[in-house]
Amino acid sequence: MGLDLVMFEHNNKIIGIVEIDYSLHESIFQSNNNWKSYNYLKKISNYYLTDIVLERTEIKKLIEDLMNIKIFIPKNFHSSLEELVKILKNNEIEKIHIGGD
Fold first, then answer.
1. Sign of the CA dihedral 27, 73, 97, 21?
2. What is the DSSP string of 27-96?
3. Are 101 and 12 in contact (CB under 8 A)?
4. Contact criterion met (CB below 8 Å) for 19 and 2
5. I need a surface site. Which of 23, 24, 72, 75 has the fewest CB within 10 A?
6. Could you report the per-residue pLDDT of 21-69, keeping only the tens digit for each?
7. Does residue 20 come out as left (phi exceeding 0), alpha (psi in the -120 to 50 range) or beta?
8. Secondary structure of residue 14 in the 3-state scheme
9. What is the pTM of this model?
10. How far apart, in whole angstroms, are the C-alpha atoms of residue 5 and residue 51?
11. Which of the two residues, 89 and 101, has the higher pLDDT score?
12. Residue 56 to residues 7, 31, 33, 47, 52: CA-CA distances in angstroms?
């Protein structure tokens, strides 16, 4: 299982659930140490202990961190990362909860 990402609208209604696949997580955090330079990636670095809520402004910062780390991960994970970013850019999402196993 990956990290579960639950997305909420403005009235706390769940509008979707996405998984950050374990292999994508490993490609970001295990294949290099560059993620340590990104504050919002640090928040989701621990696969088993992640349990955070991010508001819209923080989601935008997470998106920036994900786009910046892209150059450091293997190319075969770029499409998965881009798909995650595309989902997070949905302006209907007011907050997200990211939880690990």
1. negative
2. HHHTS-SGGGG-HHHHTT--TTT-EEEEEHHHHHHHHHHHHHHGGGS-GGGHHHHHHHHHHHT-TT--EE
3. no
4. yes
5. 75
6. 889 999 999 878 899 999 999 999 987 788 999 999 999 999 999 999 9
7. beta
8. strand
9. 0.92
10. 10
11. 89
12. 11, 29, 27, 22, 13
* Token reading at 80: 């998965």
How many Å apart are CA 34 and CA 97, to the nearest integer?
A: 24
Q: What is the token pair recorded at 4?
A: 């579960």
Q: Which residues of 71-88 are buried (b: 16+ CB within 10 A; e: fewer)?
A: eebeeebeeebeebeeeb
Which tokens belong to 97? 């909860």
